[in-house]
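Fig. S4 source data, part A: sequence.
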Amino acid sequence: MNRTIPQTTDQQTKRRSGMWTRRLSGELLAHTLLIIVAVLFLVPFLWLVITSLKQKSQVFTDPLVWIPDPIMWSNYPKALTSPSFPFVRLLSNTIFYTVTSTLGVVISSTVVAYAFARMDFRGRDTLFGITLATLMLPGIVTLIPTYVLFSTLGLVGSYAPLILPVWFGTAFNIFLLRQFMMTIPFDLTDAARVDGAGDGVILWRVMVPLIRPALLVVAIFHFLYTWNDFMGPLIYLSDSNDFPLVLGLYSFRGRFGGSVDWPLMMSASIAIIVPVVLLFFVAQRSFIEGVTLTGLKGA
């Protein structure tokens, strides 16, 4: 009969020390890789900030100048008050576009997701499958038919082609919200039905308060998308007075002809980036919570 030989105190100590060393080495390697990747991602942003504070003659030099001398803080007011970059008007256009579009996505996607998650009707699963199938279609495939449709309706040249479609829901956001709703116990909605509540009351009084983290995720995702949207406004907008910030920045670049004033360009770019960075930090906790919870498998 084989008998297990008890380990001595020294052997147990050595074993624990070896396990602790291997664990520490693994964590050190993981953190080192994360730091390297983070630095690689930060270098372009660092170059952006540094360039915005340089003189034009210091941008492309050999060797590269990392510390501006002198620091040109005047680049920011100069860029934001330039007639070629009317920042206030561009900002108001961008806020109008992002807010109305985000509201449309959140409201419409919530209603459709509730129907797929809580309402039992004929063909529900088929319609949900068709909705998910639209995610497989590249945007370039529907670009021309969509443009022809809005051109026939006489809406090209306005924000209508950019805002109206999202007021009918988007497939990804519908799927995201539907999965979140599936994690909520059916007992809650069944109890509300017993008390005489209809689907409208259940949606806005029961479901919406419970899915606020997911709604915030949808809102932030779409807000960032519309804030940085370049292709849509480029295709449908023709009047420079209607341009959002991103398209205004593109026009601002063209005013220099063959020689781009990179410090002013970078200053204007930072002015566009700052609002979305602040938004992320303000909503970071709820955003991460929503992303984590929507990853749970529904019932």
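Fig. S4 source data, part B ends here. Residues 9-52 form the longest helix (44 residues).
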